[in-house]
Amino acid sequence: MSKKIFFFILFILNHSLLQAKINTHFFDEELIKTRQLFPSERNFKKACFFYLNKNYDSTLIYTNKILNSKTKNNLLLDYTHFLRGTSFQEKDLFDKATKEYKLISKSFKFNHIRDVYLGYLYLNKNNFKLALYYLKKIELLDQNKLKNIDISSVYHNIGLCYLHLSDYKNSEIYLFKSLILRNTKKETELLINSCMDLANLYYIQYKDSLAIPYFRKAYQLSKKTTNFKLKQNTALNMAVVEENLKNYSFAIEYRKEYENWRDSLNDQNKVWEIAEKEKKFSVNIKEKEIKVLEAENKIKINQRNWLIYSFSLLIIIFIIGIYFYKQKIKTNKIILSQRNKLDELNATKDQLFSIVSHDLRSSVNALKTSNTKLLENLESQNYTELDKLLQNNSSIANGAYNLLDNLLNWALLQTKQLYFQKETLHLYSIIQQIEYNYKPLILNKNIRFENRVKKDHFIIADLDSFKIILRNVLDNAIKFCKDDDLISIYTLDTTENFHQLVIEDTGKGMSQETQSKLMEESILLSKKNDDEAIGTGLGFQLCKIMILKNDGEIRIESVENKGTKIILTIPKSGNNG
Length: 577
What we know:
By secondary structure, the protein is of the alpha+beta class. Among the domains are: 22-149, Tetratricopeptide repeat domain (Serine Threonine Protein Phosphatase 5, Tetratricopeptide repeat, Alpha Horseshoe); 304-414, Orthogonal Bundle (Helix Hairpins), CATH 1.10.287; 422-571, 2-Layer Sandwich (Heat Shock Protein 90), CATH 3.30.565.10. It has helices at residues 3-15, 25-36, 42-52, 56-68, 74-90, 94-102, 111-124, 128-139, 143-146, 151-164, 168-185, 188-204, 208-222, 228-244, 248-301, 303-330, 332-380, 383-414, 427-444, 463-479, 512-519, 538-549; strands at 422-426, 448-452, 458-462, 486-491, 498-505, 553-559, 563-571. Strands 2-4-5-7-6 form a five-stranded mixed sheet. The protein has a two-stranded antiparallel ribbon with strand order 1-3. Strand 4 (486-491) and strand 5 (498-505) form a beta hairpin. The protein is flat and about 80 Å long.
């Protein structure tokens, strides 16, 4: 890989970490005072309230009403455009945010904050000259205004502008200024960014001896952070560095680390995606509530008319009911012939929705209860209990995610949208990946885990569906194991064309009746008598279908209170040792 390409990749990775760090506490206090100056401006009061509570969608709704009122008060308009610009910026709508900030007058008290944000926005839009223009203005501010701005981030972003404009000398000066300040404050994540960007600066100038130490320092610092994206980026940086140095064994190790962090980040992003959808749903509900409140007066005025409309609607419904009743009589013979099949489908649907709604509601209620306790312990600074609650939240979220993941894959199977591509897979490596993903749950429950799969075993299967099978089986094994139980994964003596992969646990096991039901074609099982789990059997049905599509089979061997063996038979690959 050439150094030009190397720099491009590294900067794209780091570019998402650009930020405009502002202490907004003093602005919030001033906003509260300003709100009191306009007692008759109800929309402005509501906009301020939602902004202070970080509800940016509602902020945009009420600030838009202010603009539609065509007010001519300059102070009110300046605050309105500032709130809208910040709201658009928080929603990553950079063009709209820039437009709002540009509408603020020159006399606005917080124009220095606006300049920092504009510099940040133009930098993210790759307009480096304009970004430099606004960021350089911050250097000229007096100390009273600078105390609420993270000047190290300003220096860092100025250095990035010069870097893109190929002014390497000035870029080095400002990146070093930022590095010194961040090193003094021990800001680990920001320090990692500074090290990587300095390394980039030297690397594109072919100053490898100066660049590589900063790459290594960034990698070492990443071990102190929980930011998966930074860990992923620094590991990839080191992999490319070692490849350029022709240290391929080290490069492979860093590549593996990069892939592990990438998998972890993907899992985390799925959880965040669910949370984001829930947030959007809540915003829509609130907007509807606001509209209902605004319409109440109109409803009262037209109440008499609504009664007439309601009566007319009842008559129409009655007439339609008579019509459909007659139609029902005409088609009764057809309905009777299909009734048995329809009842069976409806029963399966009702049972599926019943169990799914129970699981999801249980998970949400558990999260609500746990979060309440979390806040209480946070106030009392009970860190031991906080750690337990956070682990509990993680376990609940993982269970809810697994349920949703199974439902998604089941729906894709039913609609024939799931694509299977068989390839040669290294069995031991896949088990390692699955073990890594479930490591927190295993450690949390004090379960021992052994991967005794032979390293020279290869199979032919679709990677994604095989991982789904392993995740469902391992998830069930963890669920029904207690402290000090053992989960071991190993291969038995194989036939000429197949490997037998065994996932064995020493958990509570299952009865012969449960085993028989699981192996039947029905989708769902009933609620178990204990409080530990609600077993739908949906995951196991997915496993059965997917193992069949991979030309394999699945068996259960289990004894109550002694443990369970799930045996997967999978076609061999020609690469086996």
